[in-house]
Amino acid sequence: MLCDGPTGPTTFPWWHSADWDHESREKSMEEFFHDFMSRMSQAGQQSFGLKETVEVYKSRVNELEESRKELTEAKISLRVELESLRSQLGTAEGALRDAQREHEIVIDQLNSRLRVEIETVRQESKRDMEALTARHQDEIRELQRRFDREIDEEKSMRLREVNQLSSETALNAQRSQIELEKKEREVATLQDDIQALRQDIKRERKTNQDLRNNLDTASTNGVTMESSIRAFKARIEFLESGREEQSQSFERLNQQMMDALEETNATKEKLRKEETLRRKLHNQVQELKGNIRVFCRVRPPSSTEAMDAAQIQYPDQSEDCKEISVLGPEEKSSLGNVSRKASNFSFDRVFGPNAQNAEVFDEISQLVQSALDGYNVCIFCYGQTGSGKTHTMSSLDGMIPRAVHQIYETATGLEEKGWRYTMEGNFVEVYNENLNDLLGKAEEIDKKKHEIRHDMQRGKTMITDITTVRLDSPEMVESILKRAASNRSVAATKANERSSRSHSVFILKLIGENNITGERSEGTLNLVDLAGSERLSHSGATGDRLKETQNINRSLSCLGDVIAALGQGKDGGHIPYRNSKLTYLLQFSLGGNSKTLMFVMVSPLQAHLSESLTSLKFATKVHNTHIGTAKRQARVRD
């Protein structure tokens, strides 16, 4: 508010102050009041126009006086409240100090009690530990006494057993010595029999050679006699035109011609009889060797596999080459000694890694000759994947091309004896218990259905809708092998090498006719490349490969069952040919009406040792099987 004073308008600074308190306000108001009263007295002397202003100031002074009274009362009230709060604060601080003292006393009491309890627990634990230790020592001493007592009893018992075994060993040694002497006598007898058989074989081979020499001589004599006959005929014609005195010479020459013709016919008849005898002797030799023969072949390791080669030995390599010994993995005994277990096997022939296909074929060529003579022959390769089966059977110098070449050469040599042969070939695959024609169209693989049909009366097998190739020359074999390999590769996928997951069967039918004797022979040569024989637990197969492995193992198991059933030799006994497509297809080439050879192929790698031993054990089972005498499929034409 503004007032007009002697020196002009006056401003009240306390009215606008924001930080004054009650005392300063009271003092200021008193000063203002005195000043105001002074000015009022001065203003009373001024003009009448200021009276209204004075009245206003009086009213304002009254208001301020009332406000001062209120503020004074508030000040007194606040002082009382402040004293009360100070008193409460002192009381609270005292209570807090009392509480802290009580808390410290409780903490000291708890710590003291805890120390006492810890010491008590420590003492009790120490006493319990000492008691347990004493009890444990007592138990140990009791167990030691019991153990010593049992050891003494065991020693006594073992000593009695050793004494008893020593007596039994001496008795068994005596019995073994007697048995050994008996076996040695039997071995000597068998060796004499074997030597006699070898002599028979040598005589048979010499007889064959003599027959061939006689055949060559007879052929030469036949040509010479035919020349003589022509000369005689010319001479006769000359003599017939001659004089009367030549008639006697004509009769004499005519008689000589007739004698020569009779001698020629007798020589040819002798040759035919000798050929028949040769076939009979050849078959007898094959029967002496056994209708089921087993050969073992170990493929050579490659340059990258040399470090992983298994330890395989050939004990009689310099003699008969019939034994093979495979050293197993290292085994550590309880005493820490490291040793290897040797597994020994014996077969009709064992071929080491250095053997070539030519050497192998020399041993089976006689069986191929049996097919020409009218017998059913089956040669199959058994072994795990990568053991060399396909190389042995289907390579360019394998058993299939060599067999066909031998058949052609032999058939050509028999033509002058009146024999004419026709040869037909089929190549089929057994994959997941289904038949495929490997000489047919590639797009029909795994799609076209083929059925196996048997003529039980004639002992013949036919496959429906199969491609049959007439083998007019040995070169045809190479062509059909390439076609079959091409069809298999088309059917294969990246995850499935078809040649190792299916059985392949090359069927060669040989039909021979003798125009002179009217004799006819029908033989069949089956060359089988079996699928890999890996066990399911080692193959880790899943999906389609699992199905393949199951079917392969099932068919190989059925093959073993068929051979085992044939070995029992029971007339009319059931042979489970129908349990698999493979055995059903080969029914007439596995039974007693056939000659069978098994190749067991062995991998040289240590990593494949388990599968190799399994294959060798299966081959031993087959080697111990005898299926009786094979029958020749021959007859005389009407």
List keywords for this structure.
elongated; 10-stranded mixed sheet; 12 helices; disordered N terminus; alpha+beta; 17 strands; single chain; Kinesin
Instruction: Determine the structural class based on helices, strands and strand pairing.
Output: alpha+beta
The helix/strand order is: EEHHHEEEEEHEHHEEEEEHEEHHHHEHE
Mean pLDDT: 78
CATH class of the domain at 291-300 and 354-636: Alpha Beta
**Largest β sheet strand count, sense and barrel closure:** 10 strands, mixed
Radius of gyration: 60 Å
Organism: Aspergillus tanneri
Keywords: ATP-binding, Coiled coil, Cytoplasm, Cytoskeleton, Microtubule, Motor protein, Nucleotide-binding
Main location: cytoplasm
Subcellular location: Cytoplasm, Cytoskeleton
Q: Could you please describe the fold and organization of this structure?
A:
Pfam families: Kinesin. Keywords: ATP-binding, Coiled coil, Cytoplasm, Cytoskeleton, Microtubule, Motor protein, Nucleotide-binding. Belongs to the TRAFAC class myosin-kinesin ATPase superfamily. Kinesin family. KIN-14 subfamily. It comes from Aspergillus tanneri. One of its GO terms (biological process) is microtubule-based movement. The strands form four sheets. Strands 3, 7, 8, 9, 10, 13, 14, 15, 16 and 17 form a ten-stranded mixed sheet that branches. Strands 4-5-6 form a three-stranded antiparallel sheet, covered by helices on one side. The model is unreliable at about 1-5 and about 10-20 (pLDDT under 50). It is elongated. Strand 9 (about 420-430) and strand 10 (about 435) form a beta hairpin. Helices cover about 55% and strands about 15% of the residues. The protein is built from twelve helices and 17 strands. It has helices at about 20-45, 50-240, 245-290, 355-370, 390-395, 400-415, 475-490, 535-540, 545-570, 580-585, 585-590, 610-625, and strands spanning about 5, 10, 290-300, 310-315, 325-330, 340-345, 350, 375-380, 420-430, 435, 450-455, 460-465, 470, 505-515, 520-530, 595-600, 635. It has a domain at about 290-300 and about 355-635: Kinesin motor domain (Kinesin), CATH 3.40.850.10. It is of the alpha+beta class and about 650 residues long.
